[in-house]
Design goal:
Beta-Lactamase, 18 strands, five-stranded parallel β-sheet, alpha/beta, Rossmann fold, 533 residues, 18 helices, Helix Hairpins
């Protein structure tokens, strides 16, 4: 702001006559006077203009002066704007204290003495003008300092003999001798690995970092001797034990007595690339799923109609009609999977009561042949009769996948446990129902357990799609539940347990309600997915 530039003075009052009188009194100051008849109009003026002083009435119909001052002070642009109250009534000390807390800098009582009003306003106008001039000077000073700093930086660069080292100064730059002992360790290395320079000087660098090389270390040393350089990725550990992947460039000095290593952390980059590849897989599967759904739906309609006629044929006895019902249910599941595969179809219907005990019995009945052919003993115990409000299609899909996985894990026979009981989620402090599926099969390797619920990961080589458990966990999480896995390896065999926890918020503990026939328990229900662990 220039010395002769006018300062904006905002006058706020709901009575036009008062605004006119203030305008006449303050006209002698030669500043820019702005009138506002309401708090809303005043706020609009403030947002559009740089106001130096606000002169406002305490009593106004929409917002009083105190409330308007509070609103003004909350905005960072106006937290230091001078506010002067004018009051036509006597103000108590508590009123004045409230005004000062709201941001007022002064009070003027009615009747207004023109000389006093002009004198007070002029002081704050000049203060505002000086403040803006000082801010302009500070800005100019900062600009000059930045300009001078840039000039010094450019001059300094002229004296640097290793421009490439300066470019990589933010990377981990280390120098070691031919025996691996650290001679130099820059700030970038301290930041990346966690050890200070004093901690590592004289120590074997790659022993300290637990470096894993992509080829034998002797072979890398030979390449350094022959070609004076090497570039590749190394797996190393930081001081905290975190494993990282770095892109490392090694260069031997002219004398052949030391090796410069420049490392850059590319862990996040590799993870992003892997995520992109997984996303591309999902996109490709989505396109394939659309083709499959289109091709399967047409013959499904004809088969469904034919099965309907067979099911209602008078020549069928009760047993045959029951199996025809089961076949129709599974046909509906095949129809549903064409809509749900890789698109995570969610039923549009409202959730209904689902008797988990009956649903599990239906799934076990479907798997009875596989249990018998694999010589698997069934251990079933239902210590609770929970009724969950949800979608039977999804829940049946979850347990069909888990039980199918357990059966496939026991090709030479074993024991399948299906247990239902009331449980407590101690982490979330929630009551609910726990359904455990146990098998004594081949077990799961500890390294595979961490990736078990990732899409496209399967322990079945080419036999599995790697989507079953991922989809199942997503369904359980939609019910605010949890799906976990644990494998115990012992000298006499392995035990694998998949545990589904469903909170009590979606379940009914009323035994009478639980004993009702569950229209939900599986008629025309979940898609018959190929179980995939």
């Amino acid at each position: 702001m220039k010395a002769d530039e006018k300062v904006n003075i905002l006058m706020v009052d709901d009575q036009p006559a008062k605004l006119l009188s203030y305008e006449v009194i303050l006209a002698e100051l030669g500043e820019n006077l702005i009138k506002a008849n309401s708090a809303k109009e005043a706020l609009n003026v403030l947002l559009k203009n740089d106001v130096g002083v606000v002169l406002m009435d305490v009593s106004m119909p929409d917002l009083d002066g105190f409330e308007l001052a509070d609103v003004i002070r909350q905005h960072p642009r106006f937290c230091k704007t001078a506010i002067i109250f004018i009051s036509g009534v006597h103000l108590t000390d508590s009123d004045k204290l409230q005004g000062y807390k709201s941001g007022a800098v002064d009070y003027i009582s009615v009747p207004v003495v023109p000389e006093v009003l002009r004198a007070k306003i002029s002081v704050f106008v000049e203060l505002h003008r000086k403040t803006r001039q000082l801010e302009a000077l500070n800005t100019e000073l900062e600009r000059r300092v930045a300009q001078r700093t840039e000039e010094l930086r450019q001059r300094e660069e002229q004296f640097r003999t290793r421009a490439d080292l300066l470019e990589l100064a933010t990377e981990a730059i280390m120098v070691r001798d031919l025996q691996g002992r650290v001679q130099f360790w820059n700030k970038g290395a301290e930041t990346l690995y966690g050890w200070s320079r004093e901690d590592v000087i004289g120590k074997d660098m790659h022993e300290l970092l637990s470096t894993t090389f992509p080829m034998p270390r002797d072979q890398i040393d030979n390449l350094l001797t022959e070609k004076k350089g090497w570039l590749g990725n190394l797996v190393q550990k930081t001081r905290s034990g975190t494993e990282i992947v770095v892109s490392c460039r090694k260069t031997v000095n002219q004398e052949g007595t030391a090796i410069l290593e420049v490392s850059r952390d590319i862990t996040a980059q590799l993870q992003a690339e892997e995520a992109l590849r997984e996303t591309e897989k999902l996109a490709a599967m989505g396109r394939v799923a659309g083709i499959i759904a289109h091709e399967i739906n047409n013959p499904l309609a004809a088969i469904t109609n034919t099965l309907y006629l067979v099911r209602n044929h008078p020549s069928l006895d009760d047993t045959a009609r029951h199996f025809a019902d089961v076949a129709e249910q599974e046909l509906q599941r095949v129809s549903h999977i064409t809509r749900q595969t890789l698109s995570f179809y969610r039923e549009a219907k409202q959730p209904v009561p689902v008797n988990l005990s009956e649903l599990l019995d239906d799934v076990l009945e479907l798997q009875a042949r596989a249990l018998k052919s694999n010589h698997i003993r069934l251990d079933k115990s239902y210590l609770a009769a929970p009724v969950v409000h949800g979608f039977p299609v999804e829940l049946r899909q979850v347990f069909l996948n888990l039980i199918g996985n357990a059966i496939q894990a026991m090709p030479d026979g074993g024991k399948l446990g299906v247990h239902v009981r009331e449980s407590m989620d101690w982490e979330g402090h929630r009551h609910g129902t726990a359904i455990s599926i146990l098998d004594t099969g081949i077990g799961i390797h500890p390294d595979d357990v961490k990736r078990l619920f990732q899409p496209f990961f399967s322990t079945k080589s080419t036999k599995g799609t790697g989507l079953g458990l991922w989809i199942s966990k997503g369904i359980v999480q939609k019910y605010d539940g949890a799906l976990t896995c644990r494998t115990l390896h012992g000298p006499t065999g392995n035990v694998t347990c998949f545990r589904v926890f469903l909170p009590v918020s979606g379940a009914s503990a009323n035994p009478a309600e639980a004993s009702k026939p569950a229209e939900t328990s599986g008629r025309r229900s979940a898609p018959a997915m190929q179980p995939t662990r």
